[in-house]
Amino acid sequence: MVKKLHPKLTERVSQDVWAEGIEQPVALLELIEEQPGVIAELAGYSVISSRQFSREQIVQLCRLAAKYEAQQIFSQFPLTGKILISAFYEPSTRTRLSFESVWHRLGGDIISITDPSTTGIAKGESLQDVAEMMNHYGDVVVLRDSNNGAIYEMLEGLRIPIINAGNGTDEHPTQALADIYAILKWRPDLVQDDFPEEKKITIGIIGNPARMRTVRSVLLFLAKFSEGIREVVIITNSIQPFSDDQREELEKEGLSFRVSNDLDGSLPDMDVVYINAIAWVGDSYEEHGIEYKLSKDSPLKKDAIILHPLARGEELSTDLDKTDHNWYFAQARGAVFVRMALMSSIMRF
Ligand code: CP
User: For residue 282, what pLDDT is reported?
Assistant: First the structure.
């Protein structure tokens, strides 16, 4: 019997990947006036929390990301000669690969640790001592650690910037940049201050703001754009969805919340549906909200977009992938450009 070739082997690979979604970054780019001084303020700083960013900095970073995404070809290599220390002590697909992709695309070099048991940490070395060594071996550290406090311990010993790539259940600020970049590409008008009531959007968050770092970080960014947000609906079965003072802090910034356990009853109002199902705790993760599932049969608004920081679980059906609701792949793709914008701004020192 003659074996048939896999159909993919009979096709030339598509070169169109970079052109996907090209019209959105251009619209965003054209709407935002460039203010280079605003992101120049980020030079030489570490990034641990979404709280560190002003609204103007987020907007200008998204503008620069849109510029990178729209130009597609990179003719400048501002990170030439700079070394990234990529330290991922917890599994990652998108964050590690996108940071490393950014670094390569901008001309830098990378050294990496993917398993702390191959370092002195396994022999009891303190994180502060590890940080002291990193000062001499690289120019910036990107750290993912399932221990919320590890990044603060590293910060004590570092004299080079460190970027939080996810610290336990606490925060994931560069994921929030990717999230807000996707939202602003979808609705560039959200950068405007003066917002008519009828154009405001409703955002649904399916998950637990107390325990999900992506949700914690993105809510802090959404609060900066609260003029354009009618309501944030939290879909959860948890009786304590917020951590201490979390809701009060966000409400003070201008967000209005409604908490509900009725997904299908709430979906018809949502313009953006942000779904996540896992929260990292220690070396493993807790699953939340798996009882809530989105699929093509869900009563989504016709123009609603779905965001998901991924990795995907059973909560998000693959039957949505080929629909216009799927903005989660654009969100993951845009993470490269927004991290390019961030890293090129931080490294200008
Ligand atoms: N969004 C996110 O943090 O994905 P990874 O865990 O794959 O990095």
Answer: 57
